[in-house]
Amino acid sequence: MEHIKRFKLKHTxxxxxxxxxAGTLLTLYFLSKFLFSISPSIANIITFPITLIxxxxxxxxxxxxxxxxxxxxxxxxxxxxxxxxxxxxxxxANYQGNKxxxxxxxxxxxxxxLRDAAEHLPMFFDHLNKMSYPHNSIDLSFLVSDSSDDTxxxxxxxxxxxxSQQDKSKRFGNIEIFEKDFGQVIGQSFSDRHGxxxxxxxxKLMARARNWLGSVAIKPYHSWVYWRDVDVxxxxxxxxxxxxxxxxxxxVPNVWRPLPDWLGNIQPYDLNxxxxxxxxxxxxDTLGEDDVIVEGYPEYATWRSHLAYMRDPNGNPEDEMxxxxxxxxxxxxxxKVFRTGSHFPAFSFxxxxxxxxxxxxxxxxxxxxxxxxxxxxxxxxxxSKEDLKHMAWMAEEEKRKLExxxxxxxxxxxxxxxxxxxxxxxxxxxxxxxxxxxxxGSENDIFVDWxxxxxxxxxxxxxxxxxxQNAKNGQGNxxxxxxxxxxxxxxxxxxxxEFDPDKN
Amino acid sequence: xxxxARLSYKLRKNLVLAILxxxxxxITIYLTFFHNxxxxxxFTLNITKNRWTRETQASSxxxxxxxxxxxxxxxxxxxxxxxxxxxxxxxxxxxxxxEFDLNKLHSTKDASINKEKVLILTPLQKFHQEYWExxxxxxxxxxLIELGFIVPRTxxxxxxxxxxxxxxxxxxxxxxxxxxxxVTILRQDSESFNKLAEKERHxxxxxxxxxxxxxxxxxxxxxxxxxxxxxxVLWLDADIVETPSTLIQDMTAHDKSVLAANVFQRYYxxxxxxxxxRPYDFNNWQESEIGLELASKMNDDEIIVEGYSxxxxxxxxxxxxxxxxxxxxxxMILDGVGGGCTLVKxxxxxxxxxxxxxxxxxxxxxxxxxxxxxRLGYEIFGLPNYLVYHIEETNI
Lengths: 504, 396
Known about the structure:
The complex is a heterodimer of chains A (504) and B (396). With 504 residues, chain A is α/β, with parallel strands linked by helices. Chain A has helices spanning 2-13, 16-37, 39-57, 62-73, 121-130, 151-163, 190-194, 199-217, 239-244, 278-286, 335-339, 354-364, 385-418, 423-434, 457-473, 478-484, 490-493; strands spanning 87-91, 108-114, 138-144, 175-179, 224-228, 232-234, 250-258, 266-268, 274-275, 305-306, 321-322, 330-334, 369-379. Chain A has four domains: 2-73, no CATH class; 93-382, Spore Coat Polysaccharide Biosynthesis Protein SpsA, Chain A (Alpha-Beta Complex), CATH 3.90.550; 389-433; 448-503. In chain A, strand 2, helix 5 and strand 3 form a beta-alpha-beta unit. In chain A, helix 3 runs antiparallel to helix 4 and helix 5 (121-130) packs parallel to helix 6. The longest helix of chain A is centred in the last third of the chain and has 34 residues, at 385-418. Chain A is elongated. Mean pLDDT of chain A is 78; it is low at 58-73 and 474-490. Chain B folds into two domains: 1-94, no CATH class; 114-390, Spore Coat Polysaccharide Biosynthesis Protein SpsA, Chain A. In chain B, 33% of the residues lie in helices and 18% in strands. In chain B, strands 2, 3, 4, 5, 6, 7, 8, 9, 10 and 11 form a ten-stranded mixed β-sheet that branches. At the A-B interface, helix 1, helix 4, strand 1, helix 6 and strand 4 of A face helix 1, helix 3, strand 1, helix 5 and strand 4 of B. Strand 4 (175-179) of chain A pairs parallel with strand 1 (97-101) of chain B, so a sheet runs across the interface.
C-alpha cells in the first residue's frame, strides 16, 4: 500500500511533462540572461539589417548612417607604421575605458600631485603595492612642486623598491616624475590651507599644478585617469575595480577621516563633493567674475547636499548619487574626459575652481559625474592649529597630573612618618571619656549674648529667657510668644538645640 | 519510534506538507541565525551599539563592506579583444622611471637657438599634398618638430589617412636628419568632425554643432600629444597650403602667449581675369561694445560666430587690418582667434586653456579658447600683415 503511494507521489512530481516544461523555462531564462550580458554587440547585430534598410531607402540620411555602420562592422583603415621610427598611430576607439578594464588591459594613468609629502609617501606606496588592479597596467605620474622636504628623494627610493620587486607582475608600468614650482604663497599646515581667505587663490594654484601634470602625463593609450592624494589612510585594495565597474565618466568615493576620541571618533572630510542647490546658484549670481565659492565655510552658505553627509554605515556601497562639484582625494575618470578638454579650471569657472569646477565643467560637457555615498575611504587625521593647542594642553595636563600624583604620594609618606595617626584610638577612647557626662541637665544651658546694642540689653535678656522658657514648654506656645513681641517674631520659630518632642 | 514513523507517513501522504515543511524550516533557521540585522525592533539597539565600535576596532573595519554587502568578487581572467590590434606593452619599457624638470622648460623668442620643441597640430579632414609640401619646406630644424594629426572616423578619413601614411612613410624613412622628431596620428573614436560637405558646413545653424565636435577633436589631439618637452604648439589647419618657410622662427620671435597669423586665400578673379587674394579667416577679432551687448542678451547656450549677417557684431576683424604698407611684424591685440595658423606657448595649454565644446561666454572652439586663455591671465595677439594662405575651394 505504502509502496504504491510513494510511487504515485514520484509519478506526479517527476512526470515527463513537468520536467520538460521546467527545462524549457530554465534554458530560456539562462539564454536570455546570457544574451543580455553581451547585449551591446547583440543589439548591433540585431539592428544592423534595420540600419541597412534605412540606408537603402532614405538617401538623405545616408552620410550619417554610413559612418556609424562602418564603425561597427568594417574595421576602419589601420595604417602600418611598424617600420617607421618615431611614428605612432592610435585608434582612440580602443581607449574609451571598459567597465571591466582589468580584464581587458585598460591602462590607467595614476596621477599624484605632491608637495611636502615625504612623510606620507611610505604609507602611500604601501597602499599602492597592495592594490589588486594589475600593476603592469598602471602608469604612475607624479608632480613634485614647491617642496622643502625630501619628497623627491623619498619618492625615488620608494619607486625603485617597487620596480625592483622579484615578482614582475608586481611592478608598475611607465613611471614619470615631473618637477615644476609654481611659487607657493600659502603655507602647508592644516589651518593655513583650510583658512577661508586662502581658499580662492590656493585652489587656483593647485588647479594649475593638476593641469600641468594631467596634460603632460596623459598618452593616447590611456583608458582611465585616476587622481589620488597621498594622504589617504585607509582604502580598499580593490578601489580601482570598485570605482571602475560602475562604468561612469567621473566617479568619486565618499571621504571621511578618523578623529581622536576627544573630538568624537569620525568626521566627514571631503565637503567638495556636492549637488548644486538653488541657494548655491543664487549665491553664485551675487559674486564677482573671479570669486570662488568654497564649501564648508560659514561665509558661503550654499545649502547644498554634500556627498559626505549622505553616508549610512550600513548602506549599500554600490549606491550612486549624481554630483555637480567633486573633491580631489580620489577621482576615477575615463581618459576621454580629460582628452576632450575637461580639466581643473585655474580660473573661476561658474564661481568655482579646481576639482569642484572640474565636476561642473565635466557636467557641462555632458559627462556624468557620480559619487558613492556609502563607499568610504579614510583620509588621515591632521590636527588643526586649535587641535594642536588642545593636544599640547592635554599633554601638559597629563604631565601635571603625573607630577601631582607623585607629590601626593610623597606627602602621604611624610605625613605617615611625621605624625602619629591617633584617630582610631580617639574613636575608642572618646566613648569612655564622654560616657559620664550628662548633656541633658537644664542647668547646663549656655547663654550667649550676640547683641551689640547696650540699650536693648535688658530687653533682649528678658526675651531670650522668655524664648528659652517657651522652648522648654514646647512648640505650641511659640505663637503666643510672637504675639507678645512682634518685633522679634523670628526667635520663637528657631528650634532650640535641646528640643525634644518626646519629653513634652 | 512510533511518532517518527507517523510523521514520515504523514509527510509522504500530504504533498503540501512535504514541500512546505523543509522550506519553513530553512526560512526559520535563516531568520533566527542569519537575518539579525534586518532592522526588527529587538535588534536595533544591538546594531546602533555595534556600528561605531566596529568602525573603531581595526583599520580593516573602516572598509565600506559589511557582512550584508560583501566585497565584490572580480574575475581577473584576461579577455582578448580580436579587434584590438595595437600593442602598447611594446612601447612601455619595464621598470622605467623617467624624470622631467619642467622648471627648465621655456618658450623664448630665440626658439631655434634654444632648441625648443614645437608641436604642429592639425585636425586632418582631407589630406592636401600642398599642405604636406608646405610643412616640408619649413626651415625650423626637423628634429625639434613633432607632428600631430587627428583623423575622423569616416571613409573620407580613411582616404586622408592612407595619403598621410604614404607621405609620412616617405619622410620618416628618409635620411635621419630629415626626419621629424615624432609623428602621432590619432583616429577619432566616434563623433566625426567633418560630417558635412563644404557648402553646408558654413551654414549658421550647423555652426554650433560642427565647431563643438571640432573643439573635441582639437582637444583630443592636443592633450594626447603635448608632452614634457613641448615648448610651443602651432595650430595649423589642413588646408593651409602656403606659409613663409621661416614661419616658426618668425612667430616665436614675437614671444607672445597666443599669436595668430592672418589667413588669406588665393583665388582666380573672374572679373579681373587674374589671380588675387582675399581675407579668409574671420575668427581673429577684437571685442566690440555691440558684441558684448549681443552676448549679454543671449541665452546661456547660444553662441556668437563671426562672418554672418544675422549676427552683426561690428567687431574689428584682423582680416581687414591687412595693410601692405605697414611692417610685417606689426602686432594687434585680439580677443578671439581662429585655428588657421595660431602659435601658442605650451604653458597656456598646460594651465588648462582648451577649446570649449560648449558655449563659453557665448564663444566656442578657438574663440572660446582665446577667452579661456584671457581668463587665465594671458594676452592674445595677431599679426595682421603676416599672411598665410588657405587652399582654394574648387567646389564653390
